[in-house]
Amino acid sequence: MPDENAGNPEDEFREMLNRFISGQGGIDPSQLAGAAGLPSDPAALAAMLGQLQNAMRGASDGGINWSVAGDQARQIANAQGVETTPEQRHALEQALNIASLWLADATTFSELSAAPSLVSRAEWARLSMPVWTEVAEPVASSISDALARVLQEQAPEELQGMIAGASQMLRSVGGALFAMQLGQVVGQLSSEVVSGGDIGIPLMEDNHAVLVPQNIAAFGEGLDIPADQVQLYLAVRELAHARLFRNARWLRLHLISAITSFARGISIDIEAMESLAEDFDPGNPEQLRSALSNGSLIPPKTEAQLASLASLETTLALIEGWVDIVTAQATVRLPRAQAIAETVRRRRATGGPAESAFAALVGLELRPRRLREAAALWQAVTDAVGTEARDALWAHPDLVPTAADIDDPAAFINRLSALARGEVPERDEMDEALDALLRGETGGTSPDQPDTETDTNPGAA
Known about the structure:
Elements: H1 9-21, H2 29-36, H3 42-57, H4 67-79, H5 86-103, E1 117-118, H6 121-154, H7 157-165, H8 167-189, E2 210-211, H9 213-220, H10 227-247, H11 249-264, H12 270-278, H13 286-293, H14 303-330, H15 337-350, H16 353-362, H17 371-392, H18 403-407, H19 409-420, H20 429-438
């Protein structure tokens, strides 16, 4: 019980929050800096406090004000950003022009109608932030709601009414800290990526390809490969990725929907949240930041989630495998293309620190684990039926290879080759079942009325 001489705890709590929202302090700035992952210097503290205050004001209904994530990401991206020199810009523009010409021989997909862009790290963060927030929102909302609920349940009886009255505020605090953490991750990613499609998912708007000149220069350092070859290879790869999503109209929505659906299926570890709530101190948000960043609030994946994740990884591998093969075809004239390609594959297979941080934050790794196998499948398809038939497989999701096709590429190639020769593939049980379903036979007969067209067994379904 509180000391009888102490003030009313509810009044003290609300007064602290009011002082913070009005910008008069009440929460230790150095602790908030740790929660945001920022150094404890005055400028960073002032910016961070302003961001959190704005986020909480803008989310008075307990929702999440994602603008704080964008502010945080751009602040980090600008910290070590440098301007693109005229020489760099000219070289990359030339590389993009050549890349577009070379791709004409490697894919039947049409050119982009919008000109590619050369962007800074901060601009990459700004352009990609809508997709990051869409992917992260389900987990952020779940964590914020669980935090408010558990804090109310764990509070002493005399304080439960106070916590309940401040539940929207608590959700806003949790949401703001999550948004700042996401901004931290995206800001770090902006220093690692070389293009819009570098992560594998379509972060940019449809028909938009972008390169990050500063990071392309850093990518080429230490490779002992001429800079113009690195620029040209990465330009081809980015344009190939953008062309795929522009021409396979269904793919972007399919992939983003699968990711957000996976994120919505993530539950919060209530025991971990309760443990956090037992000694939660609103003046020390480092506790919450640590729990968010290390992924301890997200329990191990269920069997259903693992199956969903495997499907996502297959799609990502097929996308990047196709991009790999098309890029290899288009850059056949480039002397060091294979060396650059191997560097890209290893880089994607291991991921970077920011990508690992995103995986802990949202519970999802955006990594194509079967990239090499998928690339081998696309190469076999190209050799067997040609570029046009290969690219036509992206016309509809039912035509795209599956995980089973990656496992057994020979069987997939045999089916494609038979179709290319005009042969009718051998019917299987699935074909028969589909025909029966279309005729209204499956499940449509009663036990005492046998289906005379297919069977004489009265129990046949």
